[in-house]
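FIELD: query
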Amino acid sequence: MQGNPISGSNSITSQVWSGPGAAFLNNVNLIDPVFNAVSLIGGSYNLTFTVTDAVGCTAFSPIVVTVAPLPIITNAPVPLNICSGQLAFYNPNSNLGSPPTVYFYSSIVTLGVVSGNTANGNGTISDVLTNTTTNPATVVYTITPGTPAGCAERR
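FIELD: result
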């Protein structure tokens, strides 16, 4: 966020952000404060940017910051125990629905030798995993739901 005050015939002596959304700024006296939305739920937060010049004249500009809700996976994946050549399947769901939620995932073999896992993908996980040894093997998937606004939660 950035206020961009331009002085008239007198110099600007102060600027301040106020309103209900000001509680989420790192410093209300900065021209370009950071709005911290990490702990917020989706919604709109009203702010007003006010400047005062050397003779006490003020000007203000209202702004609304809209925070998109964070997508959260609502059907948490559970560990699967499958045999070599079987399907590892998971269709994630989100509190926001699909769309707008999109799902990205990555996988890595953490134990043994396995083929068939998709290293990086999106949407539903549907991999036929093949263990090429007689020892147990493990594949770990990391799923990230996201939104068009760029919000993401890691699972």
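FIELD: remark
DSSP finds no helices and nine strands in the chain.
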